[in-house]
Amino acid sequence: ESRCLIRQEGAKSYVTTGRCGPGSELEAVLAKRRRPCLGILLPSADNSFYMSMFECLRKELHSRGFDLFAAVHASEAEAERRQLEMMVSMGMTGILFFSHREFDNHRAFENCPLPVVCLGRNIRGFARSVVSVNNYDVGRLAAQHLMGNGYTSFGYVGMRQAHQMKDMRLKGYAGAIKASGYELDEERIVQLEGEEEADIQRLYAFFS
């Protein structure tokens, strides 16, 4: 209701906690910026995958003359919709967002007047641009990179959820390895469950 970006409790805070809607001080500051700015909507601020992606995007965009403005909706559908509207009203150049299974606001993103790119996974019927992590060519290029550096023995670590959805990354990876005369043995494929402690044990067993 306060239209805050992130409310962080504790002795230190590095995020904006004031209003961010039309007519706010933050909107006035952003309106005066000289560099174009993209907005990104994140489901979480403490997930290593999201934050590593955010940092890679920030560095790449900075090198190209763009700023990156982030908001975290904590996997709340209504908060995500509000933040999308907020970024449009604040004059963002475009919007990036991570898709997630708990809910899909893809209709709101499809109707957004700004360029929109979905990150993470394909959404059935989504009519805007998508950059998926479950991508055949990504797996193929990863295998070619390893073979180009002289590796001849291969393993694969993925998510069981992706495996159940026809893991295209694994198909591209295994296909490129086989096409070059090598094999990816079944016992060298490990599928993680998304449960930290159990996955750590699986990785220890895999690499031992």
Quick recap of the structure?
This protein is α/β, with parallel strands linked by helices. The chain is built from 8 helices and 7 strands.
Task: Describe the protein.
By secondary structure, the protein is of the alpha/beta class. It is 40% helix and 16% strand. The chain has eight helices and seven strands, in the order H-E-H-E-H-E-H-E-E-H-E-H-H-E-H. The strands form two sheets. The protein has a five-stranded parallel sheet, with helices on both faces. A two-stranded parallel ribbon has the order 6-7. Strand 1 (37-42), helix 2 and strand 2 form a beta-alpha-beta unit. Helix 5 runs parallel beside helix 7 (168-179). The protein is elongated and about 60 Å long. The N and C termini lie far apart (51 Å). Mean pLDDT is 80; it is low at 6-15.
